[in-house]
Write a structure and sequence with these properties.
It is a single chain. This protein has a domain at about 5-55. The chain is elongated, with a radius of gyration of 53 Å. The longest helix is centred in the middle third of the chain and has 24 residues, at about 90-110. By secondary structure, the protein is mainly alpha-helical. Helix 1 (about 5-15) packs across helix 2. About 50% of the residues lie in helices and about 0% in strands. The chain has helices at about 5-15, 20-30, 45, 50, 60-70, 85, 90-110, 135-150.
Length: about 170
């Protein structure tokens, strides 16, 4: 038997040019029990609607059920924020800074000597006397001694302005 018309409909179906009536002709053709072997591979495509259960479709009351679940929109009320609530983080930060400064000042005061402080003067402003030799004094003395002996502060021999030849010491 010649299935030339069915082949033409299939070609138009793959190109998307068939009408609803032509697609119905293809569905009815493939729903028959006797389908040629060369066209049997297309049968599941056209009998799908008949073989699948109808439970996958949405019911007529779907829209009503969905709208009842959503409900009416509720009014959102604005919350009033007081100035003290708005600036609370800044107050906390300022308090932390004040605490840190107070503790650092207390730590400095505890390490200072309060023995020779005149009455009425805070220990932070009292002059401090350090025991031992001064580093500046020892350096200055070394430089003065070196110049007195004719050496520079680096330990080399100072040359008078008129000499250009190096001087050798024995």
């Amino acid at each position: 038997m010649d299935y030339k018309y069915i082949n033409q409909l299939l070609d138009r179906y793959w190109q998307g040019e068939t009408t609803l009536e032509e697609e119905q002709i293809l569905r009815s053709f493939f729903s028959q029990l006797c389908v040629p072997e060369e066209l049997a591979k297309y049968r599941p495509l056209f009998v799908y609607e008949q073989t699948e259960p109808k439970t996958d479709r949405l019911g007529d009351d779907f829209d009503e059920r969905l709208l009842s679940m959503v409900g009416e929109p509720q009014e959102v009320k604005a919350r009033k924020v007081l100035i003290s609530q708005r600036f609370a983080p800044l107050f906390k930060a300022a308090a932390m800074v004040a605490i840190v400064l107070t503790l650092s000042q207390a730590a400095q005061m505890s390490f200072q000597s309060t023995e020779d402080v005149p009455a009425g003067v805070p220990a932070a402003y009292a002059p401090r006397v350090h025991e031992g030799a001064s580093v500046a004094m020892t350096d200055t003395m070394r430089m003065d001694t070196a110049r007195h002996n004719g050496l520079s502060s680096t330990g080399t021999v100072d040359q008078p302005l008129g000499q250009t030849a190096p001087t050798i010491l024995k």
